[in-house]
Amino acid sequence: MRIFIAGLTLSAMLIAGGAALAGERVAADVSCMATAEKLTYDCTIMLKGKKSGEPVAGAEVVVKADMPSMPLAHNVRPVKAAAGAMPGHYTATLELEMLGEWALTLDVSGPTRDRVVKKLDFGPASDESGHEHGAMKMKDHDSDMDHDGMKMEEAQ
């Protein structure tokens, strides 16, 4: 009987430990490059655990875009990101409606569940000849949101 109880206790500890790892908050790095199509960007997303720094592989990532200066004014379809070649890497193509600052909301589910908001400035950049391109300048304003979309304060 003692062996059975000890086995149950060990199993419960292992399950709880796995759940803690699965519940780790996610950090994201996002970079986007303009494509040949106007206002269309190929984005690369790198997800890792905030505490562990380990890549978050096997996740489902849905990317939503909205302009903070004009909430709900744009109708950009959410896109599901595809898994990249390396663990924790994902790719998505965004079709925006105009240049400017956009908030990309990454809804992550799978081995962990989280929401990460990254603000990026998709603005014109010019090359040496003075021609403007739809390049993206990244403003790395992280914003952690909980599952209900409420802003969370990070503990100091």
Structure, briefly:
This protein has 156 residues and is mostly beta strands.
Q: What does it look like?
A:
The chain is mainly beta. The chain contains 1 helix and 11 strands; from the N terminus they run H-E-E-E-E-E-E-E-E-E-E-E. A 5-stranded antiparallel beta sheet has the order 4-3-7-8-11, with no helix packed on it. The chain has a 4-stranded antiparallel beta sheet with strand order 1-2-6-5, with no helix packed on it. A two-stranded antiparallel ribbon has the order 9-10. A hairpin with a 4-residue loop joins strand 7 (100-109) and strand 8 (114-122). The longest helix has 21 residues, at 2-22. The relative contact order is 0.19.
What is the CA–CA distance across the termini? 46 Å
* CATH class division: Mainly Beta
Order of strands in the sheet with the most strands?
A: 4-3-7-8-11
Percent in helix: 10-25%
Q: How many DSSP H or I helices?
A: 1
* CATH topology type: Immunoglobulin-like
Rg (C-alpha, Å) = 19 Å
Main beta sheet: strand number and arrangement? 5 strands, antiparallel
Mean pLDDT across the residues is 76
CATH superfamily: Immunoglobulins
**Total discrete domains:** 1
Question: How much of the sequence is in beta strands?
Answer: 35-45%
Low-confidence stretches: 4-21, 126-156
Taken in chain order, the helices and strands follow as HEEEEEEEEEEE
Structural class: mainly beta
Number of DSSP strands?
Answer: 11
Could you say what the CATH architecture is?
Sandwich
Shape: globular
